[in-house]
Every structure is written in structure tokens, then in C-alpha cells.
Here is the input.
Amino acid sequence: MFGIGMPELMIIFAIALIVIGPAKLPELARSLGKTLNEFKRATDDFKWKIEEDSRAHEEKERIAKEAAAREEQLKAEAARLAAIVTTDPAATETVHPSLTPPEPVATGAAAPPVELSLDDKLRLAGITPLQVEQPASPAMSPPVEMCATPAQQVEKSAV
Here is the structure.
């Protein structure tokens, strides 16, 4: 990088040993190593952040391009369907089955209205009717008085 080889490093080490002294040289080398390690870590973090920002920017661009392409496809499809519907109403059968007009009701005698039972009306409303068993004969079941709470029903039945 700087053109410093092994002989040059040995000369620099010898000069540092003479100038700084043998007692302080290990401490200086340790602090220099820590400083270089922190510098390397900071540059790696900076590189990672730049690369991450670049990837995020590329991803946003890719998503925007895909969205624009999909929007163009949808516009083209909507224009094609509008052209089919406005030019040929009979062609709606080929577009989608739900776009076909309903079958005309046969003219003639109207069907008589159907009378629904209460259970059928409840089922149509989404309510499940209660299944109540009727006693075989009224003489077999004891008379029950309707009370506000179950505790009052127990008190009445005990009397």
C-alpha cells in the first residue's frame, strides 16, 4: 500500500524503541492496535450502511417499476373489457360469467305465494329455532310458574 516492506518496518521499530523506550513501547503498540481496530470497525460499519441504503433504494425502484407495469396492465385490461362491453353486449358471456344478464322470467301465470312456517322464517333470518319437546300429555307434566330468576323457580317448586 505505502511500499513499506519488512526492512523498512524493522528500521521504524528500532527508531521507536530508541525514542520511546522499552517500557512505554508495548503500551503504545497496544493503544495503536486498538485505535486501528476501532478505525477498521467504523469504516466497515460505514460501508455496510452505504450498501444497505443502496439495496433499499434499488428495492424501492424495483417495486415502483413493478407497480407501474401492473398498473399499465390493469388499465389495458380495463380498456379492453370496456371496449368489449360497449361494442357487443352479447360478448359479455365470454368476458366473465357473472356479467351475463339474468334469464328473463317466463310470462304467464304467476306462481302462488309460498307460506313459510315460523321455523323457516327464523332459519332465513339466520336464527336457529329452539327444539322444544312437548310432553306426551298435559296431565303428566307439573304446572310450572314463570319466574324472573332460577332461584325463585327453585323456591316455588319447593313449596
About this structure: The CA atoms of residues 122 and 129 lie 6 Å apart. The chain has a mean pLDDT of 75. Helices lie at 6-20, 25-87, 92-95, 118-124, 150-158. Residues 6-99 form one domain.
